[in-house]
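Backbone-to-sequence.
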């Protein structure tokens, strides 16, 4: 005798949901064009075989999904042929390079604005974030540091090794023409070369988190809440992809990457808006090139 299986409770879908899906099917079939007025409420009641309250709720659902727009006294008008996808759904499906391209557009403009609008508190936040990030980077040996080309004896240490909140003597940037903050030995900021190389930080996830905080500090200095909100919407997707890449490859040239961050910070702090935009774009373009070369995962787990 067969053992009875557990009862699975069945739920009946609300009529409004079914009516909304029926209308979506008719829209997808091309019954109405974008901009067209949907049939009146009484006509939909007759066509769908439901009550007025059900029709109203179905239209409200379509309006909430960006398919129709209701106008007082005029009716409901078609604004799209399909519901707008949820932002998180789009990001989960997007390849990491697409997210980086979006970040490039956002951060280049934000960096330029930040260079023009940064306040002393913004400068302190950027310096703190850059220092916190630098402390998590894998450091070469003393011998390797001494042998790096362009390193001069007695040269100023990078910002992570200096007092993080110390301000230059003359305003935000004592010498706008001076080299970047302790990174004079680095390749040109606009080289666009991939930044992947066999280097592994002790705590990759903490470093990714610190990296996100630095970039957010720069964008916050632009004082544009829309740019900041869009960046916040991208960070979870980017954070997951970066962590996965490090898990899979254990490779990233954080030293070269740090140079890009230092130059970006310096351009913003010194008020060089065009240079700040170039630095932001060059850094993210190089990162995207490296990820494509290394075969970064297309979607997070």
């Amino acid at each position: 005798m067969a053992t009875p299986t557990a009862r699975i409770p069945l739920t009946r879908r609300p009529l409004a949901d079914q009516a909304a899906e029926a209308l979506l099917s008719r829209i997808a079939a091309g019954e109405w064009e974008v901009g067209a007025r949907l049939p009146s409420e009484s006509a939909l009641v007759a066509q769908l075989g439901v009550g007025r309250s059900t029709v109203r709720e179905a239209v409200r659902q379509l309006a909430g999904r960006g398919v129709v727009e209701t106008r007082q006294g005029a009716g409901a008008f078609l604004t799209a042929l399909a519901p707008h996808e949820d932002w998180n759904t789009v990001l989960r499906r997007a390849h990491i390079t697409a997210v980086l391209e979006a970040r490039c557009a956002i951060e280049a403009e934000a960096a330029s604005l930040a260079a023009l609008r940064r306040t002393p508190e913004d400068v302190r936040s950027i310096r703190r974030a850059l220092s916190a990030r630098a402390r998590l980077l894998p450091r070469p040996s003393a011998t390797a540091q001494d042998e790096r080309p362009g390193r001069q004896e007695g040269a100023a240490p990078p910002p992570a090794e200096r007092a993080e909140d110390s301000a230059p003597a003359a305003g935000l940037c004592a010498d706008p023409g001076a080299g970047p903050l302790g990174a004079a030995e680095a390749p040109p900021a606009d080289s666009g070369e991939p930044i992947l190389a066999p280097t592994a930080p002790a705590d990759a996830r903490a470093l990714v988190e610190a990296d996100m905080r630095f970039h957010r500090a720069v964008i916050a200095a632009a004082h544009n809440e829309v740019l900041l909100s869009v960046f916040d919407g991208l960070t979870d997707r980017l954070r997951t992809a970066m962590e996965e890449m490090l898990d899979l490859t254990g490779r990233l040239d954080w030293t070269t990457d740090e140079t890009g961050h230092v130059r970006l910070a310096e351009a913003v702090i010194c008020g060089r808006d065009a240079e700040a935009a170039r630095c932001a774009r060059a850094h993210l373009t190089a990162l995207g090139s490296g990820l494509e070369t290394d075969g970064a995962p297309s979607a997070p787990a």
